[in-house]
Amino acid sequence: MVHVDRRTLLKAGMTATAAGALGMTTTGTAGAAVPAPTIHPTSEWGARPASGAIVVENHKPTYIVVHHAVDPPMNNDFSLSRAFYVSRFIQNLHMDKNGWIDSGQQFTNSRGGYVTEGRHRSLEILRGGTQHVQGANVGNHNSEVIGIENEGLYSTVDVPTALWNSLVSLVAYIAHQYGIAPEFIKGHRDFNSTECPGQVLYNRLPELRTAVGRVLGVPVTRSEAEWPLLKPGDTGRKVQLAQRFLRASGFGVTADGVFGKSTKEAVTALATQAGLPRDTCTAAKAADETGFLGADVWPLIVPADRSTAAWRADLARA
């Protein structure tokens, strides 16, 4: 069986961190000041006190990460009271089921276009523009990301217009405050093996980057290819390549291009052995994501003869 050492994991994380830091230092917010959107603080929606100390990172975040909040189930209530209810619901799940000290995300965006503060002190620290509150929404990357939960499940349906507009405004403000280039607006799946933020919303991230760049008055450089997300039941060339890499790593799977039971078991075993986090978005999900092969698994199996950027580009073309 393959052994995954700490050096391999650190190498994958450091690659992403270095790329993000480069974007921050070479790109500024050249346009006019971006107005702060209305953000309702924890004191307004009835948040519980955090059960532990809020950690404030003494640096700016590298990435802005978009999530979807699959629970509570979405409906057609677009009111402010619904937004407050969603914030309480998520906090209760994160604290009572996940065992976290508070809401995992720094901000929450409702289907009605209302933005609330998630983890305590996130709004206060964002306004300062030099530090950020550490959340619990992207496994193994929480020291470098700021996360936004968007109410709803967006695997097959699109986001409401109000949610989209408030997302653009919020992300633009965060990017302006921290000097984050639009290229470093990411989806949760760009870091962990998860469906989040849903295929439909994920497909709109290039549009989000363009919209944010327009608000900031900065050009948007094309983002590098990301690791593909493979799921049980998938077929094709990418699956076959993953199976070959798994075989080379010591797993007895057949390279037939069908993501079946043995491939799922191999990926699950590898993820468990490597200590990869699960359930890092909301505490309840619409589907079991066990065995998903995504951004945190690929670096453990691809050959070391190329950079991660080169492998991502090749897999995007496969």
UniProtKB/TrEMBL annotation:
<dbReference type="GO" id="GO:0008745">
    <property type="term" value="F:N-acetylmuramoyl-L-alanine amidase activity"/>
</dbReference>
<dbReference type="InterPro" id="IPR036365">
    <property type="entry name" value="PGBD-like_sf"/>
</dbReference>
<dbReference type="Pfam" id="PF01471">
    <property type="entry name" value="PG_binding_1"/>
</dbReference>
<dbReference type="GO" id="GO:0009253">
    <property type="term" value="P:peptidoglycan catabolic process"/>
</dbReference>
<feature type="signal peptide">
    <location>
        <begin position="1"/>
        <end position="32"/>
    </location>
</feature>
<dbReference type="InterPro" id="IPR036505">
    <property type="entry name" value="Amidase/PGRP_sf"/>
</dbReference>
<feature type="domain" description="Peptidoglycan binding-like">
    <location>
        <begin position="236"/>
        <end position="279"/>
    </location>
</feature>
<feature type="domain" description="N-acetylmuramoyl-L-alanine amidase">
    <location>
        <begin position="58"/>
        <end position="199"/>
    </location>
</feature>
<protein>
    <submittedName>
        <fullName>N-acetylmuramoyl-L-alanine amidase</fullName>
    </submittedName>
</protein>
<dbReference type="InterPro" id="IPR002477">
    <property type="entry name" value="Peptidoglycan-bd-like"/>
</dbReference>
<dbReference type="InterPro" id="IPR006311">
    <property type="entry name" value="TAT_signal"/>
</dbReference>
<keyword id="KW-0732">Signal</keyword>
<dbReference type="InterPro" id="IPR036366">
    <property type="entry name" value="PGBDSf"/>
</dbReference>
<dbReference type="Pfam" id="PF01510">
    <property type="entry name" value="Amidase_2"/>
</dbReference>
<dbReference type="InterPro" id="IPR015510">
    <property type="entry name" value="PGRP"/>
</dbReference>
<dbReference type="InterPro" id="IPR002502">
    <property type="entry name" value="Amidase_domain"/>
</dbReference>
